[in-house]
Specification:
Elements (H helix, E strand, L loop, with lengths): L1 H19 L14 E8 L8 E8 L2 E6 L2 E6 L4 E6 L4 E2 L3 E2 L8 H4 L1 E14 L2 E12 L4 E9 L5 E10 L2 E13 L15 E2 L13
Parallel strand pairs: 6-13
Antiparallel strand pairs: 1-2, 1-12, 2-3, 3-4, 4-5, 5-6, 5-7, 8-9, 9-10, 10-11, 11-12
C-alpha cells in the first residue's frame, strides 16, 4: 500500500499543477493553423447590428473582408492595406505604429487574462469557454466577457462588452462557417489590376514612413 501511495503522489501533484497553472492557450495565444472563417460581428459602434465578415488567416498575414472593404494585414512589414474591390483600387499602405506580437486583435481578442469555464460544442467542434479581459478589434477596445476557442486557438464565439467613450456597449462575434485549410498567398497580395487611389497619396506635410 505504501508503494502505491508513493507512486501515485507525483501524479496527483502533477494533476494539481495542471488545474492551478494559468491558461497558456485559447485567447492568450495566436491561432496555430491557417483557416477561413465566416462571421457575424457586432462592434460597439454598430448599434447591435450584426455585420457579415470573412477572415482568411495565414500566420503572419490576415485578410479581413467586411461590407465591400478588404483589409490586408502584414505583420512582418507591420502595415495594413485597404482594398476596395468594387472599383479595383487600394489605399496607400499604413504603418502599424505600436508593437505587434501576434495577430489576435484582427482575429479574436488580445486577452490579458483568461479563466477557463468549461467545454462545449459549437459547429460540431469541441471548444473551450473562457472568461476574458483584454482588448478587441484593431482599435483595441477594452473588452470584458466570454470567448470560445478551438484546440487550435481559433476564436469562434465572443459575447461581452467593449468600453467606448466611457460606455459599455455590446460586442458579439459568432462563426457561421470555419474551414481549416492552407491559405492561398494570393489572398494577401494587392491584385495586379488594382490602382492606388489618388486621394490616398500623402501631401508634403504628411510624414512618410
Amino acid at each position: 500500500m505504501a508503494y502505491w501511495s508513493t507512486l501515485l503522489r507525483p501524479a496527483a501533484f502533477a494533476a494539481f499543477l495542471t488545474l492551478s497553472l494559468p491558461v497558456l492557450a485559447g485567447p492568450l495565444e495566436a491561432p496555430a493553423v491557417d483557416y477561413t472563417q465566416d462571421l457575424l460581428v457586432t462592434r460597439p459602434t454598430d448599434h447591435a447590428f450584426k455585420k457579415p465578415e470573412r477572415i482568411v488567416f495565414g500566420a503572419r498575414h490576415i485578410r479581413v473582408e467586411s461590407v465591400g472593404i478588404v483589409t490586408l494585414v502584414d505583420l512582418d512589414r507591420r502595415e495594413t492595406v485597404t482594398l476596395i474591390p468594387r472599383v479595383r483600387t487600394y489605399w496607400r499602405p499604413a504603418k502599424i505604429k505600436e508593437p505587434v506580437v501576434d495577430p489576435r486583435r484582427w482575429v479574436g481578442i488580445e486577452a490579458e487574462s483568461a479563466e477557463r469555464v468549461g467545454e462545449e460544442t459549437l459547429l460540431g467542434r469541441q471548444v473551450t469557454k473562457y472568461k476574458v479581459k483584454g482588448t478587441i478589434f484593431e482599435a483595441r477596445i477594452p473588452f470584458e466577457g466570454e470567448a470560445w476557442t478551438t484546440p487550435e486557438n481559433i476564436v469562434v464565439r465572443v459575447v461581452g462588452s467593449g468600453k467606448v467613450n466611457g460606455a459599455n456597449l455590446p460586442v458579439e462575434i459568432s462563426t457561421v462557417q470555419l474551414v481549416e485549410t492552407p491559405s492561398d498567398q494570393r489572398a494577401f497580395a494587392i491584385p495586379e489590376r488594382y490602382g492606388r487611389a489618388a486621394s490616398s497619396e500623402p501631401n508634403p506635410r504628411q510624414e512618410d514612413y
